[in-house]
Amino acid sequence: QTLWYCSTIYSPITRLRSSKMASSKIISFFLFIFFFGSVNSFFTPAASSWGRLQSTSLAVSPQDDGNAKNVMLRREMMQKSLTFGALLTASPAYARSAKSRTTGYDVQHTEAEWAQMLSPQQSFILRQGGTESPYSSILEGEDRAGLFVCAGCGTPLFNSKQKFHSGTGWPSFAAPTMSKSNPDVSNVEMEDVSTFQYQLAGAEVRCRTCGGHLGDVFADGFLFPGTPAFATGKRYCIDGGALIFVPNNQSADGELEFVRGDLPPAKSARPVFQG
Question: By the 8 A CB rule, do 78 and 37 touch?
């Protein structure tokens, strides 16, 4: 029962779309999950049941109109199912890092200014550390060549060459874009957590320029053979609403074409903006 519970909770396993993973890695991973799931079930009170997990791990996006069923925080879901009680407990609605999203960053604005600059969805994600619903961003299905930049400051964050479909419902990338001024540093800042915590539950990632919350990075790239993540060993699980996509092939009239990630997926035509 513990093995079933843990494997169900861990979304990369339940949502993995490929059957080409080596059997030895599957066995090793499930043994790892079984061990920590067993320890968790031993030390965690009965109140930490699946029902309680559902009721305490919901974050409501402004686009969801009160429907919180599909907005369980990615890392919160894993932490509450795989860790020792409150060892890695996070806020049920927002990214848990207490680090300021303003101090120390090159681009700074007051919260009132951010509210004027960003849409409600962008503000919810970038400035409040919220999580959008899976499959709610048009950028999850964006496959054209181009750059994904920060919706708050325009910093290039991810190249389309590093994008892949993880089956989780959020835009996924294998690696971030490196800084032009310092090729050894990426434009995406990773939360400073222990190796144990990162391997088990991931870490928050932010825009290194403005401090805006982007999503989480997980050390499970090996679960996605045939994708760029398999080579890097990482999966950057990013909220589409935190991004703007700028395609490579721009029109000759000089007007910039871009796609805002806070828009819902289009059923037929792809909405684009001129600016």
Answer: no
Q: Which residue, among 83, 79, 36, has the nearest Cα to 56 in the 3D structure?
A: 79
Burial of residue 70, with CB atoms counted within 10 A of its CB: 0-12 exposed, 13-18 middle, 19 or more buried: middle
CA neighbor of 136 nearest in space, from 124, 118, 145, 146: 124
Q: What is the pLDDT of residues 83-105, one digit of tens each?
A: 433 333 333 345 666 788 888 89
For residue 44, what pLDDT band results from cuts at 50, 70 and 90?
very low
Tokens describing residue 208 = 């290194």
In the chain, the amino acid numbered 102 is T
Query: C-alpha 92: how far from its chain's center?
Result: 15
- Write the single-letter amino acid at 79: Q
| CA–CA distance, 68 with 89 (Å, rounded to integer) | 20
179 exposed, middle or buried (CB, 10 Å; 0-12, 13-18, 19+)? middle
Record the tokens describing residue 131, joined without a space. Answer: 């999580």
C-alpha 147/C-alpha 111 separation (Å) is 27
Catalytic residue from among 150, 153, 207, 237 = 237
As a whole number, mean pLDDT of residues 226-232 equals: 97
- Tell me what pLDDT residue 50 has: 26
* Longest Cα–Cα distance in the chain: 65
Q: Check if 150 is active-site.
A: no
* Token digits of residue 55: 């009721």
Of the candidates 192, 203, 148, which has an alpha carbon nearest to the alpha carbon of residue 173? 148
Instruction: With a cut of 50, say whether residue 148 has pLDDT above it.
Output: yes
Token pair for residue 151? 């919706």
The mean pLDDT value for 3-27 works out to 37
- pLDDT tens-digit profile of 211-223? 999 999 999 999 9
pLDDT at 167 over 50: yes
